[in-house]
Amino acid sequence: MAEKQVNPKLKTLLEMGPIVIFFVAYLWLREKTFVIGGVEYEGFIIVTAGFVPLMIVSSLALWKLTGHLSKMQVATLVLVVVFGGLSVWLNDDRFFKMKPTMIYVLFGGILGFGLLRGQSYLKYVMDSMLPLEDAGWMILTRRLMMFFLGLAVLNEAIWRTQSTDTWVYFKTFGLTAAIFVFFMTQGGVFQKYAKEEDTPS
């Protein structure tokens, strides 16, 4: 089913809003401790507990408006629910901090599996946005696979060796900026392998 057209600003708000709210709420509650049912919870856990249902609601709203959620969005939502839920249930922030690692290992692994089969799964996701020749898709897929796996390693290094504050800033701004920079640096591939539009004879 074709994706319904919605206001781009509303779509961006639904996609990025939960992350921004998580960041602001963390800055507000990071120094606080809450006692619920006789158990102490740090602010990070409380913010995580709010982020999970917020992601579910925003994803459902996005699906309702557009009639479509990409496989990447669905996988991300599932991992947010699983790892966020584990962090809240076990009162252990490590599970939620592992989530980006699992997401990027999953995406990198899927792209790698496709490459082993001689296919670019990235093409199936982005072909309508970036019409490239097959050779271009293979190059871009290999690079993105390595990039995702590199982000997974970087996330592990940061959450295991740095403070929670550092990890939250990295998660909110660093990962987003890294993905933006990655695609900005692929201009040579886009130019060299762009498909020429068919012209009427």
Would you kindly provide a written description of the structure presented here, covering whatever features stand out?
By secondary structure, this protein is mostly helical. The chain has two domains: 1-91; 93-195, no CATH class. Helices cover 75% and strands 4% of the residues. The chain is built from eight helices and two strands. It has helices at 8-29, 43-66, 71-90, 94-116, 121-126, 134-161, 164-184, 187-193, and strands spanning 33-36, 39-42. Strands 1-2 form a two-stranded antiparallel ribbon. Helix 3 (71-90) packs antiparallel against helix 4, helix 6 (134-161) runs antiparallel to helix 7 (164-184) and helix 6 (134-161) runs antiparallel to helix 8 (187-193). The longest helix is centred in the C-terminal third of the chain and has 28 residues, at 134-161. The protein is globular. The two termini are 31 Å apart. The mean pLDDT is 90.
